[in-house]
Amino acid sequence: MAQLEQAAAGAAAIRIRLDDALAARGMTLTELSQRVGITVVNLSVLKNGRARAIRFSTLAALCAELDCQPGDLLSYEPGGAEG
């Protein structure tokens, strides 16, 4: 059970910086959705940190469209599980 709790805490330490990438490019979530073929709802779940997983193909599509690296969209912030 301790491993499961550690995994959950680790997942909570992952931060999504999709807002920053969109703002830097002057792009809306709706526009990104249309360009990559992912629903606005699914992108919103990701953007708001409620997603528990992301497919590499989704991450690759976002990086291709936003001309960025995965590390530009994801960060690990240990101890930041709350918030």
- Enumerate the spans where pLDDT stays under 50 for 5 or more consecutive residues: none
Mean of the pLDDT scores? Answer: 88
- Coarse shape: globular
CATH H-tier superfamily: lambda repressor-like DNA-binding domains
Q: What is the ordering of alpha helices and beta strands?
A: HEHHHHHE
**Overall strand count:** 2
Secondary-structure content class? mainly alpha
In total, how many domains does the architecture comprise? 1
* CATH class descriptor: Mainly Alpha
Strand order of the largest sheet: 1-2
Named CATH topology: 434 Repressor (Amino-terminal Domain)
Q: In CATH terms, what is the architecture?
A: Orthogonal Bundle
Q: C-alpha Rg, in Å? A: 13 Å
Number of helices: 6
Distance between the termini: 23 Å
| Estimated share of beta-strand residues | 5-15%
Helix content: 55-70%
- Specify the biggest β-sheet: 2 strands, antiparallel
